[in-house]
Structures are given as C-alpha cells and as structure tokens.
Amino acid sequence: MATNLATLLKEPLRGQNTLVGLFWVQRGAGISGRKNASCLPSDPLQRKKIDVNKLDLRKSYVGLVQPVNQVKPPRKQKEKRRTWNHIATTITDPKMIPEGWDHQEHDLDPDDLDAQIARCHERIAERILPDVFQHRLEGFLELKAAENKISDGWPKGLDKDVYQRLNSLKAIEEHLSKEGDNYKELPNVRALITAYKSGQLKWNGGLVTYWSKGLKLSEPRPFDWDEFEAINKKHDGHDAFWVEGV
C-alpha cells in the first residue's frame, strides 16, 4: 500500500492486506494461517478456537458495550458562575481584576462549542480582560466553522463522527481509484459510504462491523482478534475484507 494512504490511515500495522477500521493489520508468524497453535513466541497469549458458524453475527452490541476510554468521568457539580455586570471601566490589567473573578469556565463542557462561544460573548460584555476572551472566541469560531464544514456534500442530520468518517472514506476511495486498488477494497469503501449516508450504519466507538466484497457480514460487535481471524479466513480475507470501526 502506498505511503500516502498509510499516512492517512494513521500508524498502520503493515502486511496482512486487510483493513481494520483505520488500521492496516499485519499477517505474520503466529498471527494468521496458524494450525492448532495455542502459544507461539510471537504470540504469547492463549488463543481461542472460534467456530464462525456458531457466532451470532446478526446480534448488535450497540448500547450494550461502552469502551473504558470513552466513558467520561462524571462532572462535578459546580455552582452557577458569578456574573460581573457592574464594571464601570474596562479592565485590561490582570492585577486589577476583582477578587473572586475566575477566567475558567468550570460549569461548561469543554467540547460544547456553542456554549463556549456564548460564554465568550458574555465575558467580553463584562469588560474584564475582554481581549483574552476575544482571542478565545476567535479560536472557538474557527473550530465551529471547521465542524460545520465537515458536513459539506453529505446528507444533513448525521452525527459528527459519521461526517468525519465519511470524509476519511472519501479520501480513501479517491486514493484507491487513482493509485490502484491492489487488495480490492473499493467495493467495501463504497458500501460503507452508502451505509453511512443512508443512516443504516453509525460510528459506534469500540464496536466493529465486518465487510467482504462490499457486503456487511455482521452487526456492530466488540473487536476480538480470534473472531477476526476466523471470519477473515472464512471469507478469504487476503483481499476484499474490511473491519470497520474500533
């Protein structure tokens, strides 16, 4: 696979000819093509023997599994921010700020751009270090513009994560079309784009779907390496096989 696609896919593990979400998965000793091997020097973990025919690939795990790295710690309850509406003159010297004043927004979600933008306007109107909040506002407005732009050219009403993924898949499609699709992944990429656009597929953090030759093989489920190997083998995963998600 060409270097520029490898860069696009973020730190790929090279060699297996199988795309797992954003990662290129390696085929090597102890990883694939193993026969009754339970423990190899390159693969020290005990392996599970998977019978693909016994897997319920029609079962969706959406809402049943939430990866630890996506569980946000509960936000501490904060008192409503004190407002400062009686400042006679604009304060630009940090040494002159009123006692108890705080520049941090403890009561806001850092990722809520609309709330952060509204708060910047409030802060500027309060006339305490307005230049600081004007600068902060400009940064948030740039982020908001970029967030709005990711939906350009796609159906309205999709999730932000889906728009981001659609843009990534579009770039992959363009690359494969231009540089060559050695591993016959274009049918999968185009099927994924169609599924995301229609709303039939969503980006579910921590879950994956399996695809082969443009057809979806499973509903969203947790990624399991042994399951991956078994499904990959059944569907001749040396090419035209894709695992979407992670």
Structure, described:
It contains six helices and six strands; from the N terminus they run αββααααβββαβ. The chain has 246 residues and is α+β, with helices and mostly antiparallel strands. Strands 1, 2, 3, 4, 5 and 6 form a six-stranded mixed sheet that branches. The longest helix has 20 residues, at 130-149. It is elongated. Residues 1-18 and 22-40 have low confidence and may be disordered.
| β-sheet strand percentage | 5-15%
Please tell me how large the radius of gyration is. 24 Å
Shape: elongated
Proportion of residues in helical segments? 25-40%
Instruction: Give, in order, the helices and strands.
Output: HEEHHHHEEEHE
Describe the sheet with the most strands.
6 strands, mixed
**What is the number of strand segments?**
6
Mean pLDDT: 82
User: What structural class do the secondary elements suggest?
Assistant: alpha+beta
| Uncertain stretches | 1-18, 22-40
Distance between the termini: 21 Å
Number of helices, where a helix is a run of at least 4 consecutive DSSP H or I residues: 6
